[in-house]
Amino acid sequence: MAGTDPTTDEENLWLIGIKKELADLTAPCPSWSICKVTSKLRSTNNGDAYNPQIISIGPLHYRKDNVLDMEEHKKQYTRYFLARSAPNEDQALDDCGKLVRSLDSKVRAYYARPIDFSEDQLAKMLLFDGCFILELLLRYSKSEERKEYDPIFDIPWMLSVLQRDLALLENQIPLLVLEILFTYIARHTAKSLPPLTLLDLALYFFRPFLNNKEEIHVYSGREISHFLDLIHRSYLPSSPESDEGSLILISCATELRGAGIEFQKGTSKHLLDLKFENGVFEIPELDVFDSTESLLRNLIAFEQCLQLENQFVTSYAVLMDRLVNTTRDVKLLERKKIIQNNLGAYEDISNLLNRICKEVVVREFYFAKLSKKVNAYYEQTCHQHRAPLKRNYFKNPWTIISVIAASVLLSLTILQTIYSVLSYYHS
Fold it and tell me: Is residue 191 domain-shared with residue 135, that is, in the same domain?
């Protein structure tokens, strides 16, 4: 009986390794909603807009050097959160730990990539992150919930940076983890919690980042996956247009104004409620502050990575990029109260809006119908010729009176000249 050739087995070791790798593969889950931002988007001018500054949440930025200091804060907040439970903190830790670990397969399905952590490691991470977030929301909602000294609330810049970090696409954990922990503490708490739901607490915490603060709209029947998804819902219009189409480009604000188009600050509180009628372009106010670029970039990345059917925020960013070409456009829109500049220099605003849509793909342009109307008006030559006259000579009542007086004087001068000539020939 011939034995196997050991040399052949050694030569096939690489194939055995491949077979193991293929056997360990997991099928991609169609329901994922947390992913790494694509390298194409990161290659633009400000890749840091997607990175946490002081705290990591979830596995994608876990234990990176710049976020390690917050790990102690997480543990402190976890202890305070579990201490809210009755009969004791140890029992709450046991129960909450088991609850979080039971979600392992569901949690992993939320991430586009496989998570390189064991069940125990992932559960520990989610327990600390989940308890920290909930304790933070509770303290933010009620000042008396805060301890005598709490650096997160006592150091002026920390809270705003935390709000920014917790709104990043790569810095999310599934909402179901927070829901199961919040439900447990609400049932076992030794003292009453604020009479708010988890979503109420989250909306209150992220209020500076929300667009429509009164109502969160839900399309396609998807459940809210995480905090960035919740913020994104606030940007969805109440009644989306049915005639979205391919991308249609328009001219910048100063060129449109040169063609007779007037800009007005829109009265709607919803950022996407732009209107164009009879040469008047109404645009709701865009409040630009330190975290605006990071917020918009992550909302756009969310739409891009998930290939959402309705790319509302992407469409808005593309339109604003077209309207703002230079600082002259920023000055015009700021003068019309359409842009609220909290950054300082006009260049900061123009650079922000001009960079934000690089490497972005727009499949369904929400403002296609509006852009067609703007271009149709712009292309009418009568408006282009009439606009300078209207802008230069009829922008206020005194100018109008002056023009009329000059016209009358010119007419009288011409008549007098004609009368003098006629009198000369008849004399």
Answer: yes
pLDDT over 70 (residue 30): no
Please give the tally of structural domains in the chain: 3
Q: Cβ distance 316 to 245 under 8 Å? A: no
Tens of pLDDT along 343-367?
A: 888 999 999 999 998 888 888 899 9
Confirm if 252 and 333 have CB atoms less than 8 A apart. no
Same domain? 370 vs 405: no
Helices (H) then strands (E): counts for the chain: 20, 5
Choose among 188, 90, 197: nearest CA to 134: 197
Residues 77-131 pLDDT 10s:
999 999 988 668 889 999 999 999 999 999 999 999 889 999 999 999 999 999 9
pLDDT of res. 277: 94
Q: What is the pLDDT of residue 220?
A: 47
CA 349 to chain centre: 16
Q: Which residues contact 189 (CB under 8 A, 6 or more apart)?
A: 84, 85, 86
- pLDDT grade for 392, boundaries at 50, 70 and 90: low
pLDDT confidence band for 24 (50 / 70 / 90): low
Which stretch of 122-126, 168-172, 407-411 has the lowest confidence by average pLDDT? 407-411
Q: Are residues 144 and 78 in the same domain?
A: yes
Q: Which domain holds residue 174?
A: 39-202
Same-domain check for residues 68 and 88: yes
Q: Which pair of tokens denotes residue 367?
A: 């403002």
**Which of these, 167, 210, 177, 170, lies nearest to 305 by C-alpha position?**
170
